[in-house]
Amino acid sequence: MAHAFSRPRSAAGPQVVAPDADRARSRRPPGGTRDTRTRTALVTGASSGIGAAVARRLEEEGGWRLVLTGRDPVRLREVAQDTRATAFAADLTLPGADRQLTDFTLATTGRVDLLVAGAGVGWAGKFLDMPPHAVDEVLDVNVLATLRLVRSVLPGMVRAGSGRVVLIGSLAGSVAVRDEAVYSAAKAAVGTFADALRYELRGTGVGVTHVVPGVVDTPFFERRGAPYQRSRPRPVPPERVAEAVRVAVARGRDEVYVPSWLRLPCRVRGAAPGLYRRLAARFG
Fold this sequence. Notes:
Strand order of the largest sheet: 4-3-2-6-7-8-9
Number of strands: 9
Organism: Streptomyces olivaceus
Keywords: Oxidoreductase
CATH topology: Rossmann fold
Helix content: 40-55%
CATH superfamily: NAD(P)-binding Rossmann-like Domain
InterPro entries: KR_dom, NAD(P)-bd_dom_sf, Sc_DH/Rdtase_CS, SDR_fam
Number of helices: 10
Shape: globular
Order of helices and strands: EEHEHEEHEHEHHEHHEHH
Protein name: SDR family NAD(P)-dependent oxidoreductase
Radius of gyration: 19 Å
Structural class: alpha/beta
Distance between the termini: 14 Å
Family: Belongs to the short-chain dehydrogenases/reductases (SDR) family.
CATH architecture: 3-Layer(aba) Sandwich
């Protein structure tokens, strides 16, 4: 839902930096035995917003080793220090960055039990006014980078016979939002990917959770260049989404809405699409 401006991309390859590279050594206990009590969570988009809130919630819960990634190394380091996590700053839209992040995480922790894909950008405005680079940015960050990272992390989970992938979607992807055509399309792709992947992984021990938040009170709206001005739905704090992620992981839920009443417009759209479209055309 945000104006997002592309960062320059280097032809030299992935621009990946690990602010806490001194901590990137294996944490497996001496003798090669693996700690089965502590699980590893890899969280993307962790420098702010929902990703940062998820990191803090998992740290509060305990029992997690955290590896955090985001594109802003300064803010990412701050969150990592707050959560006693290892930080790996990376632009996951760059070729090979997903593999480097996965290799770094495995070298640091030996495993990935949970992937929370929270990185996302958007753009607000008329589709015909949207610059081509902004279209690419929204699709690259929300869809392509997410799918590549899941593809990189997933084989280890399948071999272990356990793990969970949490994909942070959006209500925009479930019902479509005026003036957010590309963002809505990108998040719809994430939701459909979550469903299809869940079917494919049945019987492997690996679960897929799709988290569908509505409006969340994060810097997301500031970055899009268009503040949120509607009276409803009211923004919820990112901590509420983070708690929903924690509960979904603990209970193995496939899909959760934050707040839960957001299921209603999705059900109306599915049961009475004509009525829903008339209402949406009037109220946006």
